[in-house]
Amino acid sequence: MNKSQIIKKLAESQGLPVSKAEEVVNTFFGEIERAFFNSERVEIRGFGSFKIKYYKGYKGRNPKTGETIEVKPKKLPFFKVGKELKKRVDRQE
Cα(21)–Cα(4) distance, rounded to whole angstroms? Predict the structure, then answer.
């Protein structure tokens, strides 16, 4: 499912105009993004949590040439699934 499908489902299920549903979805994702920029953790009970994970730099190897390269430190968004969602997904077979 992609963002436009989420917007369409929200509009249909709540009887909203697509423009209003799009505003709601954009606000939701925008707030998660804002939290990332402020190094905040976002937790949605029963679903999971989002946070920024920090990775140290290290020496890597170019697989083509075998040359040693320096991989810079980085930070990436990380999602950890909640217990309730994990259980619900595990039961789906």
Answer: 10
